[in-house]
Amino acid sequence: MAGTGVIEDYVTGLSRTLRGPRRPKLDMIAEARDSLLDTAEALEGEGLRREEAERAAVEEFGTIREIAPGYQEELSNSAGRRLAALLFVTVPLTTVMWSVIWKIFPAAPAYETMPDWFVPVARGVDLLQMLTGVIGGVALFALGRGLRRIRRPRLVTRALAVFVWAMLPVMLVLCGALMFGSRDSAGFGDYPPGIVASLMSYVFWLAQLYCASRCLSVTRRGPVPVTA
C-alpha cells in the first residue's frame, strides 16, 4: 500500500540528504520505505488511522538527522569499494596491455634512437601502475570483509581517492616524458593496436578520476546536511 504523504515526504527528504552511488542509494531508500510501510500497516491494523500510523512509523524509525550519518557511512563504503574495484581491475589490465603493445610493436630499430632513461621510466610507470592495483585490492578487501576490523572506513575511502588524485601529476610527468622520448621514433599513429590501447587507457583514467572525485564528495568532513 502506498503512503499517504508522511512516509513519502520522509524518504524524499532522506534521499535528498544522502550523497553517494546511485544504485546503492536507491536500494537503501527503497528498504527504508518498505520498512516504514510495513510498520505503518501493522499500526493501522491495530486501529490507528493511516496518517497517524505513518507518523508513528516515522517517529519510531528515527529522524533524518539521527539516521542519515549511518546511511551516509554505508554509501561512503560503497563508493570506496567501487573505486577500489576499478583500480584493482583496470590498472593491472592497463599495465599488461601496454606491456604486450611494447613487445609486439613493429619498430625495433626505433628503440636505438630512444634516450637511455626511456626504458627505466617506462618500467617505473609499470611498477607504479601495479602498485596502484595492489593498493586498490587491499582497499577492496578492507572495505569488504575487513570492515569489522576498521574503526573509520570513511578514511580508507577518502585516502584512496586522495591517492588517485596525487598520482595524477606523477603519471602526467612520467607519461609526458615517455612521449617526449619517443617523439623521433615510430609512433602509434599508423598502428591500430596502439591507438586502441591509448583510448582505453584514457577511458580507464577518466573513470578512476571520476570515481575518486565522487569518493571525496561523499566523505567530506562535517555533519550530513539534512534536507527538509
What class, by secondary structure content? mainly alpha
Strand count = 0
* Chain oligomer state: single chain
Characterize the main sheet. Answer: none
Report the mean per-residue pLDDT as an integer. 84
Radius of gyration from the alpha-carbon trace, in angstroms: 25 Å
| Structural domains: how many | 2
Cα(first) to Cα(last) distance is 24 Å
Overall 3D geometry?
elongated
Number of helical elements? 7
What percentage of residues falls in helices of 4 or more residues?
over 70%
* H/E series: HHHHHHH
Low-confidence stretches: none
In short:
The protein has 228 residues and is mainly alpha-helical. It contains seven helices and no strands. The longest helix has 41 residues, at 64-104.
Notable characteristics:
single chain; 228 residues; mainly alpha; 2 domains; 7 helices; elongated
What does this structure look like?
- By secondary structure, the protein is an all-alpha fold.
- It folds into 2 domains: 6-62, no CATH class; 76-218.
- Helices cover 75% and strands 0% of the residues.
- The chain has helices at residues 6-17, 22-45, 50-61, 64-104, 118-142, 153-181, 192-218.
- Helix 1 (6-17) runs antiparallel to helix 2 (22-45).
- The two termini are 24 Å apart.
